Methylamine utilization protein
Amino acid sequence: MQLTQQVNKVNTKRARWQYGLMLSTCLVSSWVLAKPITVQVKDAEGKVVKDAVVWFESAQLPRSANKLQQAYKMGQKDRAFTPHILVVPKGAEVSFPNYDSILHHVYSFSPAQPFEFKLYRDSPQSLNFGNTGVVELGCNIHDWMLGYILVVDSTYFALTNGQGEAIIELPETPIDNLTMQVWHEGFANLDKPESQTIKVLPTSNSLIYQLDQSLFKPKEDFSDEFDDYE
């Protein structure tokens, strides 16, 4: 009896060790399969572009469950949308917390996702974004407030930083017909991103994309210190 119990304990420890080894291998494999790609976006004059959205599309790209289930937020703070530009994958849930001590009335007339959240402050609103496209946001009380939610058919996306660089992790496996899409709020037609087909990624894992069109300057801030909903 004691011998049987000892054998069972040994088998249990061995099974746990094998499971831990298998789990570690899976984690390492997932990490190894991720390949960061750096895309630098430049304008028509060759200057780096900040806050451009870059994403990759392909039927062979697997969807990231983590990106789909992420807690996306488009807040209102200091009478402005924060972040100014939010990128989400198609089907993502977005909440609209109000961090101000005043009321906001968030709306969008964009065909991709028209909606309206009437005066609210304490109860965060949320919405599922099931259509791709640009959703331009406004506040019915504070006319100067402007924000964007860009819904993309991909889970591989990023905004460019101050150096005009977007860093996106792609699977290590070969992918045919990879399309890179680029969008900026300065485009004349916000519903038409620029795109480029990439047959083979460079061994340096870095790309430079120069915009075909000139960019309009962002709208000025017309906010004031007074409103009727303090």
User: Anything to note?
Assistant: Confidence is low (pLDDT under 50) at residues 17-32.
